[in-house]
Amino acid sequence: MVSKMNPIRQNIIEINNLKMQAFHGVLPQEHIVGNLFSISISLQTDFSMAMDNDSLDDTISYAEVAEVIKEEMLIPSKLLEHVGGRIVKHIQDRWGSKIKGIDLRIAKLSPPIGLDIDNCAVRIIVNS
Fold first, then answer.
1. What is the pLDDT of residues 52-96, one digit of tens each?
2. Is residue 108 within 8 Å of 25, Cβ to Cβ?
3. What is the DSSP string of 30-71?
4. Which residues of 36-46 are buried (b: 16+ CB within 10 A; e: fewer)?
5. Which of 34, 64, 66, 72 could bridge across to 23 with cysteines, CB 3.0–4.6 Å?
6. Alpha-carbon torsion 67, 91, 86, 83, what sign?
7. What is the pTM of this model?
């Protein structure tokens, strides 16, 4: 007798390169002029039921995740680490056990460091 094994599913919801103006930084002018940021996030979850029943209740709405990111990005902070921590906490509080892992990247696209650089970023990876 051969037993059937359920395949391990790794379902990922992604938002890639959400761009928005925000006012994060250590320098005073960064809180006045602001900067353009790019935010990407991957959420590991199990949306296998949603694949079968086409119900938003059985997954995580990327539109709602984008709103959480926007809400937290609009609160000025000195450090991207702090902003990222708030985003991760907000997502964990909102979706709880549906979240199996988070990979968040926040990039400042024109950091005021006087060098030719594409961006500076922080990345937070959480495995539940």
1. 999 999 999 999 999 999 999 999 999 999 999 999 999 999 999
2. yes
3. HHHT-EEEEEEEEEEE--HHHHHH--GGGS--HHHHHHHHHH
4. ebbbbbbbbbe
5. 34
6. negative
7. 0.90
